[in-house]
Amino acid sequence: MSEPGDRPSAAETFDFIIIGAGSAGCVLANRLTESSRHRVLLLEAGGEDRSLWIHIPVGYGKLFDAPSVNWLYHSEPEPELNGRMMFQPRGKVLGGTSAINGLIYTRGTRRDFDHWRQLGNVGWGYDDILPFFIRSEDQQRGADAFHGVGGPVAVSDPPQRHELADAFIEAGGEAGYQRNPDFNAASNEGFGYYQATARRGRRCSAAVAYLRPARRRPNLKIATHAHATRILFSGKQAVAVQYRQHGRELVAQAAGEVILSGGVFNSPQLLELSGIGRATVLRSLGFEIMQESSGVGENLQDHFMVNTVYRCTRSITLNDAMNSWAGCIGMAARYALRRSGWMANSATYAGAFIRSAAHLDTPDLQVNLALWSVDDSGKTRRKLHRFPGFNTGIVDLTPESRGSVHCKNSDPSAPPVIRFQFFRSHRDHETMVAGLKIVRRVMAMPAIAPYVAEELLPGPKSRTSDDLLAYCRERGRSCLHPASTCKMGIDSDSVVDPRLRVRGVSSLRVIDGSVMPTLVAANPHAATMMIAEKGAEMILEDARR
Questions:
Q1: Residue 50: is it exposed, middle or buried by C-beta count within 10 angstroms (0-12/13-18/19+)?
Q2: Quick check: 279 and 40 in contact, CB under 8 A?
Q3: Would you tell me which of 122, 434, 457, 469 could form a disulfide with 356, CB atoms 3.0–4.6 Å apart?
Q4: What are 162-197's pLDDT values in tens digits?
């Protein structure tokens, strides 16, 4: 076994060690302990999910920059975005980013997953993975060909409709787009209300859905504030994990497998710290090369987003509720007594999946309607406007730009170096400008125009395509949907094979959103849980052999 210079304390042995208790790690901890046959250790660098704001759906606004539950990463300056750094809030708590995200439940399209299969990932086509989505769901609307009931994840409609969301959906119809009552059925195209991972006014994070029912099992041990620093090997076999907890260096032995579920940024970072990665990168950091893997940390993908912001003619937005003591008290009372109102739902009620050009086969844009507006100059802290306001987030679902994430140095506690390389493609430019023009056309429709007092951003000075392109460079940002830094595949730069095993070594898998070969055209949380559901089945199948 390879070990660092200072010998850690005596090790405890488990069948499986899971690194990271996020969207994937919580799923794995549950599924791998359902029988009493396997002893599992779950390591989480953050703490317990005790914050009240985690469990109140609208509370994610309070956690956006909270270091107690958040890694608070930033990208390097983005050359095509006027040198701006992209803030990257990622969950550092049981539940991971599922504990602090916007709760929107969208899966992706048939085309997304069939493309994975076409890339050589046998068993990952849409028909293959749909049963895992269905297995995970407790769908409020009931079971059908696309949905399940009785699963761990509560998927629900908003507790109440909102007149501005209704007007937005109606305006989409007036602009020539179809209505879509279910973005997770046969097609995602059209305008409609989002479903959320919530039930009865409470967030259903991966920790709530999967970890809470598993915690009473004697074969599961959860270690919080346990920061994995290195995977240890005997030859090419992963046999242990070194981690820091409360100032102590500890080691846990793996009799079966080590499963890395640290997420899109932390999984490649830990692989590199363990000597697995691109040779030139490892040498530059002074790391010994245990296994060369050229794709580690490469292929970083994210949805690019830009907002349009409007002053509303009526005092019906979250701004109005939050900007007075009476509004706050009323909002809290309604939530406490009825589990309804603003606090019981994500403030992003409705959205749309649309095509930027008629010749496209599937939507390449997502439009999110958020019933609030902020003074957002790209800084971490964002404050609601003092007047009624709302915004749309225009999201490029299929960007061509690719980036990377690598270790900064040999210190496991140092944040990784994140480079998105956003907006380097002419195609990406055209798509975002088209999206801005489409949203302007929708906002001029009779159903919603009476609610629009003025367009604050981009504003009337942004008239031409060049103006809108400049606005994207000034205000565009990460949609916080990173993926694909340990991609699955059969080609030479794939980090894991279609069974999610790290290529070139044994007894080590990566199971989280980093294995997506291409980013799904949706919010990726649901797909990440699906990957873990399927990954757990693969692990158990292999363990029985």
A1: exposed
A2: no
A3: 434
A4: 999 999 999 999 999 999 999 999 999 999 999 999
C-alpha distances (whole Å) from 348 to each of 7, 196, 371, 446 are: 50, 10, 6, 22
Among the listed residues 61, 189, 210, 228, the one whose alpha carbon sits nearest the alpha carbon of residue 138: 210
How buried is 415 (Cβ within 10 angstroms: 0-12 exposed, 13-18 middle, 19+ buried)?
middle
Contact criterion met (CB below 8 Å) for 469 and 462: no
Buried residues in 322-332 as b, exposed as e (16+ CB within 10 A)? bbeeebeeebe
- Cα 541 → chain centroid: 27
DSSP state of 72: -
Do residues 165 and 372 touch, judged by C-beta distance below 8 A?
A: no
Residue 503 gets which letter from DSSP?
Answer: T
**Separation of alpha carbons 467 and 473, rounded Å:** 10
Query: Nearest-CA neighbor of 184 among 521, 528, 531, 537?
Result: 521
Are 428 and 400 in contact by the 8 Å Cβ rule? The answer is yes
Two tokens, residue 172: 């989409």
User: What does pTM read for this prediction?
Assistant: 0.96
Q: Which two tokens stand for residue 466?
A: 């060049």
Q: How far apart are CA 212 and CA 50, in angstroms?
A: 12
pLDDT band at 377 (very low <50, low <70, confident <90, very high): low
Residue 291: in which H helix or E strand, if any? strand 291-292
Strands (E), 323-443: 348-354, 365-370, 374-375, 383-384, 389-396, 404-406, 417-419
Which residues are catalytic, by number? 481
pLDDT tens-digit series, residues 117-128: 999 999 999 999
**Do strands 365-370 and 348-354 pair parallel, antiparallel, or not at all (unpaired)?**
antiparallel
Q: Assign residue 341 a region (left: φ > 0; alpha: ψ between -120 and 50; beta: otherwise).
A: left
| CB 536 within 8 Å of CB 28 | yes
192: tokens are 């409609």
List the domains of the chain with CATH numbers: 1-70+88-123+203-296+406-415+483-545 (3.50.50.60), 159-193+304-398+424-475 (3.30.410.40)
Cα–chain center distance at 101: 7
The DSSP secondary-structure symbol of 455 reads E
In sequence order, the β-bridge partners of residue 42 are: 18, 222
238: part of which helix (H) or strand (E)? strand 237-245
Specify the residue for token string 């915004």.
391
- Residue 483: both structure tokens together: 């993926």
Q: Please tell me the distance from the alpha carbon of residue 129 to that of residue 290, in angstroms, as a whole number.
A: 33
**Mean pLDDT value across residues 528-544:** 97
What are 268's two structure tokens? 């490649």
The secondary element (H helix, E strand) that includes residue 371 is none
- Report the C-alpha gap between 354 and 343 in whole angstroms: 29
* CB 203, CB 57: distance < 8 Å: yes
Radius of gyration of the CA atoms of the chain, in A: 23
Place of tokens 């959103």: 513
β-bridge mates for residue 195, sequence order? none
DSSP type of residue 57? G
Q: Give the amino acid at 55.
A: H
